[in-house]
Amino acid sequence: MKSEKHEAVGGRVNLYRRANSRYWQCQGSFGGVSERASTKTENLDEARRFAENWYLEHEAKHSGVAPELPASAPAVLSDTPGMVAFPQHDKKARLLAAAIELVSEVGFRDAQISTIAERAGLAQGTLYRNYKSRTALLVQVVAHVSQHEVDVVAGIAMGDEPAKEILRRCAYTFGSRAVRGRRMGYALVAEPVESEIEVERLRYRQKLMRVFETVIDRGIHEGAFVDQPAQVSAACIVGSLFEALVGPMARVNDITEAEQLAQVEAIADFCVRAVVGKASA
Asked: What's the pLDDT tens digit per position in 122-173?
């Protein structure tokens, strides 16, 4: 076996396996200090997932702070990710609201500073006084909108219905909202982005996984789901939601919304089948 090396988390983590090693190792720098850990897996895909979790845990530990949002951050309205109200009294929030609205229309790549500032009714210099860069503002777009989407799913997860029905509703609600706000949904899931934005999207996946893990744990205790590692199953469900939605959201012109929602129904059914069935022998 020869030595191999790959990158994860947008190049922020190195994955490597030396010729005499069995498991993939990951290496990253935190606060100027290089740290390493064994992934304890020979599978590269599993090693990448380990690296994502490992990086987020260490990055949060070293930074000690959560992403900063304006005190009066705009509320995302009802059914469609990206629909926001403009709070006129807070310039930072107005800029964030304008950025969310623009990304929901054109995605991250075409969300330019000049257009964001114009929509907010402010000068570009005002934008840079509130956000250190375009990327920093777009990171906050992900942080704000994704938190709202997680809150919607978490609200369903707290319901009184049987766990099987809650799981299906969580999966369908997440998917249907992504379809209805398809441009923002694609931006939050799969659009090529800078590494800083990708890290925030990783946090999004982590938060969703914790919601689904809670529902799966509940189903196991109810006897509705087969005994299983809830954390692993939740990661698989979120992965299937993200990956299965990429195609429908990318094919904007050749599939109707009704057809997309039918696919979301199928995805939600799959998520339920994945945790209620019997374990393999």
From this structure: 999 999 999 999 999 999 999 999 988 888 899 888 888 899 999 999 999 9
Which residue's entry shows tokens 């990951």?
Answer: 26
Q: Please state, as a whole number, how many other Cβ atoms lie within 10 Å of the Cβ of residue 198.
A: 17
Q: Show the DSSP H helices in the chain as ranges.
A: 44-63, 91-106, 113-120, 124-130, 134-157, 163-180, 182-189, 195-222, 230-250, 257-276
Tell me the CA distances in angstroms from 11 to 27, 53, 119, 194, 207, one per residue in order: 11, 14, 33, 10, 22
- d(CA 79, CA 182) in angstroms, rounded, equals 12
- 37: phi then psi, degrees, rounded to nearest 5: -160, 150
pLDDT tens digit string along 239-277? Answer: 988 888 776 666 556 677 788 888 889 999 999 999 997
pLDDT tens, residue by residue, 219-240: 999 899 999 999 999 999 999 8
Domain 146-274, second-level architecture: Orthogonal Bundle (1.10)
Q: What angle, 0 to 180 degrees and rounded to 10, lies between the N-to-C axes of helices 195-222 and 44-63?
A: 110
* Rounded Cα–Cα distance for residues 46 and 160 (Å): 34
Provide the residue ranges of all domains of the chain, joining segments of one domain with +: 4-63, 146-274
The pLDDT, as a whole number, for residue 137 is: 95
DSSP state of 69: -
Collapsing DSSP to helix, strand or coil, 42 comes out as coil
Angle at 25 between CA 21 and CA 29, to 5 degrees: 145
C-alpha 93, offset from chain centre: 22
Measuring CA to CA, how many Å separate 167 from each of 145, 181, 189, 270, 275? 22, 21, 20, 11, 10
Q: Do residues 70 and 96 touch, judged by C-beta distance below 8 A?
A: yes
